[in-house]
Amino acid sequence: MYIKPKVVVLGGGTGLSVILRGLKHFPVDITAIVTVADDGGSSGKLRDELEIPAPGDLRNVMVALSEIEPLVEDLLQYRFKGDTSLAGHPLGNLLLAAMVGVTGDLTSAMKGLTNVFDIKGRILPSTCDKAVLVAEMVDGTRVEGESKIPKADKKIKRVYFKESPEPVEETITAVEEADLIVLGIGSLYTSIIPNLLPGRMRRAILNSRAKKVYICNAMEQPGETRGYTLSDHIQALHNHMGRKFLDVVVADISHIPEETLELYRAEGVGPVKVDRERCEEMNLELMEQRLIELEKDTGKIRHHPYKTAAAVYSLIEH
Q1: C-alpha torsion sign, points 144, 148, 154, 158
Q2: Rounded to 5 degrees, what angle do the CA atoms 28, 30, 195 make?
């Protein structure tokens, strides 16, 4: 009997959804651990008004891992318009908030929606606490609130939680039982690192025998990683964990059209430089792949879901 390898993917934002959208087509047992520190937009409003963790990234992951009709996906992602109190809220966020009211907590809410939307795998919030992310900048200033950190546009020294949240118990078990742990794609300081900060989660990852993989963004990010090389991303992760823990780093080496680069230069950023020599000094396996595609609507780039998932799947020891 074939036992599916257990893959745990940690992150948030749209990057995590991209990986999962491709990974669900491979014969693996998926657990997605999703940050809930977002305090902007619809998620922020629901956090404050209903005293629940931010549902936005969970909604995106739910859509990515589900096998639902395209019209239902459009329905969950639909944002109400106009001047009403619902304006700006995606229907999926409101559905998650309502399910929390029915079941009592966010973890139970996600379990309840798994069957409704035919979700391929488990989706777990990193915590059920209302977590407030804080960034300490290199210049000594501090910025409180996940949505405000990139807007400060200062070099970040570290991020931490105002009050340390307790991780969801199932997330610890998932990490302990994992065959492969994947970090990324996504915002380094506001989507990926927040999942690593609770003490029990950090210890579980460090003690895990699973291969640990980081998929780096192809482009620098304004307000977070402007000027960062690949090794800078890796070092930030190791600093927050207290020691080296990554085994493999996946980096994109695709050719990016000049007109696309111009869009990013207007924001003061460019491609993440793959500084191979420094990465080799870190005693890591560097996997260089061509994983990106152009978005039709924006002309910017994103990781191709299936190509990225295939790279992840190739790292599993069968």
Answers
A1: positive
A2: 140
Please tell me the pTM assigned to this model.
Answer: 0.92
Task: For 199-258, write each residue's pLDDT tens digit.
Answer: 999 999 999 999 999 999 999 999 999 999 999 999 999 999 999 999 999 999 999 999
Task: List the one residue out of 115, 123, 117, 103 whose CA is nearest residue 168.
Answer: 123
Please report the DSSP string for 5-37 in residue order: PEEEEEE-HHHHHHHHHHHTTSS-EEEEEE---
Find, among 264, 263, 237, 266, the residue nearest to 249 by Cα: 237
Q: Are 92 and 98 in contact (CB under 8 A)?
A: no
Q: Are 311 and 274 in contact (CB under 8 A)?
A: no
How big is the CA angle at 271 (ends 145 and 39), to the nearest 5 degrees? 15
Strand-strand pairing, 133-137 and 142-144: antiparallel
Neighbours of 24 (CB within 10 A): 18
Rounded CA separation 312/318 (Å): 13
Distance CA 110, CA 282 (A): 38
Strands (E), 153-296: 156-161, 180-183, 211-215, 248-252, 285-289, 292-294
pLDDT tens profile 172-197: 999 999 999 999 899 999 999 999 99
Residue 81 makes CB contacts below 8 A (sequence gap 6+) with 87
For residue 43, name the pLDDT band (cuts at 50, 70, 90): low
Chain-centroid distance of CA 39 in Å reads 15
With contact defined as beta carbons under 8 Å apart, do 221 and 266 qualify?
Answer: no
